[in-house]
């Protein structure tokens, strides 16, 4: 971190939320990183529904110093993800993709990459300027 002051460390908060509060543990209780919890919809699979913190997502406060964790919650249920060879169908396969290594997964480990993508887009926005300005420079809009 010292050599890279602009770095942001994202850490999955963990999937121990069923254990109640104060389930965020190391490394997600770090002071110099952003811990990521998981949110989901009340709808079973597709479509609109009420957004809520996932039941399995670890919750704070941290043990000892009672800091509020996770720092942010991000959608992490029903995320279409790659599955390594030899891992077996641990989750529902994507429709029409039963023979492919793509499966729906859930967890704070799925929410963290979603947040990483958003963080990079925000950083790019502040470094490069507004999206519309880039389109004008490319000659794609007036």
Automatic annotation (TrEMBL):
It comes from the Eukaryota. It is an enzyme of class 3 (hydrolase). It catalyses: Hydrolysis of proteins with broad specificity for peptide bonds, and a preference for a large uncharged residue in P1. Hydrolyzes peptide amides. Its EC number is 3.4.21.62. GO terms for biological process: proteolysis. Residues 7-128 form the Peptidase S8/S53 domain. PROSITE patterns: SUBTILASE. It holds the Pfam family Peptidase_S8. This is subtilisin. It comes from Tribonema minus.
């Amino acid at each position: 971190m010292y050599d890279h002051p602009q770095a942001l460390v994202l850490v999955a908060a963990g999937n121990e939320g069923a254990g109640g509060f104060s389930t965020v543990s190391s490394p997600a209780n770090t002071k110099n990183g952003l811990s990521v919890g998981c949110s989901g919809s009340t709808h079973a699979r597709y479509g609109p529904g009420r957004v809520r913190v996932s039941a399995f997502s670890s919750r704070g406060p941290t043990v000892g110093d009672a800091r509020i964790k996770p720092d942010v919650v991000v959608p992490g249920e029903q995320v279409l993800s790659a599955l390594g060879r030899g891992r077996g169908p641990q989750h529902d396969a994507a429709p029409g993709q039963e023979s492919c290594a793509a499966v729906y997964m859930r967890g704070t480990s799925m929410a963290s990459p979603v947040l990483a993508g958003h963080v990079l887009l925000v950083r790019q926005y502040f470094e490069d300027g507004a999206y519309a300005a880039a389109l004008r420079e490319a000659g794609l809009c007036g």
